[in-house]
Amino acid sequence: MIQLTNRDPYCLRATLTTLCADTLAAHEILGFLSPSARCFCRKCMVTRAQFRANMNVVAERRTKETFEAHAAQATIPGNSTLTGVKKGCPLHLSTAFDATKDAVFDIFHDLLEGVAHWVVSLALRSFILKDKYFTLSDFNGRISAFNYGVPDIKNKPSANFSEDSLKGSKLKQTGSQMWCLIRVFGFLVANVPEDDKNLKLVNLLQSILLIVFAEAIRPDDITKLERLIEEHHRLFQELHVNNTVNVFDEDENDFGAGRQQIGRRQRVMYKEVKVHARNKLHHMTHLPEEIRDHGNLVRFWCARYEARHQIFSRYGSVCCNFINIVKSMAQMHQLSSLSGLLKTSFRAEDIELQDPLKMPLMSSDHSEILIASGVDPTSIVQAVQAVAIAGETYRSGLFVVINASAPNFALIQNLYFINDKVYLVVVPWRTVSFKCRYCAYEVECEASTHPIVVRHDALGQHGALGPWNPWSKRTVYVAPRTIIF
Ligand SMILES: [Zn+2]
Predict the structure, then answer these.
(1) PANTHER family from the xrefs (predicted)?
(2) What separation in Å is there between the alpha carbon of 295 and the centre of ligand 1?
């Protein structure tokens, strides 16, 4: 019972609806065998052999009833291998929870710490070793020199690509760096022909990420996502999958016996490396149904929890006392949370102004268009260099979406803070077209266009984007992080 001051006590009931965890942890908690098992999927009964034969296959769906039946028979020798279930799920004590449905796949680990690494690595292998469009040092130089713009510079990929990065394995980049690298990849390899199949594979993955990472998704987008994933897997299989040589077997124990031989063949067939499909690629085929069941998966991704690790490693380096580190971390976290509570206003949109300069509206450079947009002529305005709203920074030289349905973009020129509202003076640019090879909108400035005023809360999408140019070209593109509508 919960007792609130001046109110009758009431009973608040809660239930477990969704489990967010990486694959290894989810299998352990839910009672499945490890992800290297023959039946490796917690949503369906697909076997590794079926998946390797056809990457788009989805076998008979597991249900709570079949799971319970498999768990009851798990003690019989050999049964676990056939069903992939090791034991009963303790979370089923919460009657509404279904282990086969409510443990969503983590798109952070599956895509940004898995599939994105392999696709980029294998594409670079083809571009650098086979087609020789550029060299490794060229690519590292392009990563360093690319103009990412203020919104993305903090996620700039590391220019650390070496020959080891071309083996189809994990790259030395964090998840957020990989997201940035995938978005910028087409711009870095602008001299690769548009019809190159490896570039097409990266573009398909980019299109998938645009939908999967979106905060809002329409039913049509889910249908499109299904088609994109099917196309991506078909092309991945055509380009990279071969059942005889495998560079991805290192964590698949049931196939580990041939590893030494595989290593030898890999060196011999250096330019002909083929790979097996891995679990994370199969997880992708379940993403559309998970979005239908649970909503946007970005709400459940583990990036949120991974970000907490950084906080504790920072506390650890400040504290420097490693005796009972857990207790020290708990104390420091509590102090930090309390300090945050005292400082925070709990407004959904906390606004932070940079270098504000107060003046009467009539003294500002844009008094005419501000008045025309409805601002009271007697107002006192603050001209600002930059403004951060709910984690997104707006400053001159960045693009905003002024009309999401087209979409139309506009370049920020000036920013004003008037009566608790942010006003942006922007110049609309013409949207030429969407270019698949960059996964971005080509935009161009029209000489006759005059600045207009847009209030932040009237923008087509929250957030600003830097202008990006393909390597050694001057065309301007705006590359959105997610779908715009
Ligand atoms: Zn499955």
Answers:
(1) IP13529P, NOTOCHORD-RELATED PROTEIN
(2) 19
